[in-house]
């Protein structure tokens, strides 16, 4: 007896056709990985992604506990639900990894990113760049007669939108920190 149930009256499904049980929708997930702060840990995590062909959209890492020697790696990745499950399971098997949390499914979270954008322009383009920066609450952190450097903090989507509006005004260069994320509410993962 097969453990796979087949819909009654559906002759197009066989016990070997598992497509209907798996989603091929690509999802974006933010993972918080608590690791031992020691040499080579980040290389192992990145190696897991590259070795299996998983995509990293954003990666940030910093020490969060000086006395306990722990760091937090925040990884934004995308894949089918099955791929996300595999990523989390494989991350959990890496020896210096203490915890793996999927902030996307564990509840509401807050994501922020910082970006610096250099915009070159003169005349009306400069005025428009300043006007848009004001709307997006971006700060001017450097100014010359030829360019501005704006600092903006927000969701990745907000930064993407600001960059797209700056492109026709003379966007020259962008530096982004990657996503930092925390679960909302009173619970904490560390």
UniProtKB/TrEMBL annotation:
Quaternary structure note: Dimer of large and small chains.
Spell out the protein name for this chain: Acetolactate synthase small subunit
By its UniProt entry, which PANTHER family does this protein fall under? Answer: ACETOLACTATE SYNTHASE SMALL SUBUNIT (PTHR30239), ACETOLACTATE SYNTHASE SMALL SUBUNIT 1, CHLOROPLASTIC (PTHR30239:SF0)
Superkingdom field: Bacteria
Q: What pathway is it annotated to?
A: Amino-acid biosynthesis; L-isoleucine biosynthesis; L-isoleucine from 2-oxobutanoate: step 1/4; Amino-acid biosynthesis; L-valine biosynthesis; L-valine from pyruvate: step 1/4
What this chain does, per the entry, is described as:
Catalyzes the conversion of 2 pyruvate molecules into acetolactate in the first common step of the biosynthetic pathway of the branched-amino acids such as leucine, isoleucine, and valine.
Q: What class of enzyme is it?
A: transferase
The record's listing under PROSITE patterns reads:
ACT
Q: Which UniProt keywords apply?
A: Amino-acid biosynthesis, Branched-chain amino acid biosynthesis, Transferase
In alphabetical order, the GO MF annotations are:
acetolactate synthase activity
Specify the ACT domain's residue ranges: 30-105
Origin species, per record, is Loktanella gaetbuli
Q: Which reaction does it catalyse?
A: 2 pyruvate + H(+) = (2S)-2-acetolactate + CO2
């Amino acid at each position: 007896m097969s453990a796979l149930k087949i819909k009654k009256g559906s002759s197009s499904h066989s016990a070997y056709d598992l497509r209907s049980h798996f989603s091929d929708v690509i999802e974006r997930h933010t993972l918080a990985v608590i690791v031992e702060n020691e040499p080579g840990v980040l290389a192992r995590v990145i190696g897991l992604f590259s070795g299996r062909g998983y995509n990293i959209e954003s990666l940030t890492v910093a020490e969060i506990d000086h006395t306990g020697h722990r760091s937090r790696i925040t990884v934004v990745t995308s894949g089918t639900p099955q791929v996300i499950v595999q990523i989390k399971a494989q991350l959990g098997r890496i020896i210096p990894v203490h915890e793996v949390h999927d902030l996307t499914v564990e509840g509401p979270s807050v994501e922020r990113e910082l970006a610096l954008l250099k915009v070159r322009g003169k005349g009306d383009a400069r005025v428009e760049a300043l006007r848009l920066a004001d709307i997006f609450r971006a700060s001017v952190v450097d100014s010359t007669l030829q360019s501005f450097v704006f600092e903006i903090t927000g969701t990745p989507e907000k930064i993407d939108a600001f960059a797209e509006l700056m492109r026709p005004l003379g966007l020259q260069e962008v530096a982004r920190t990657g996503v930092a994320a925390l679960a909302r509410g009173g619970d904490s993962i560390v």
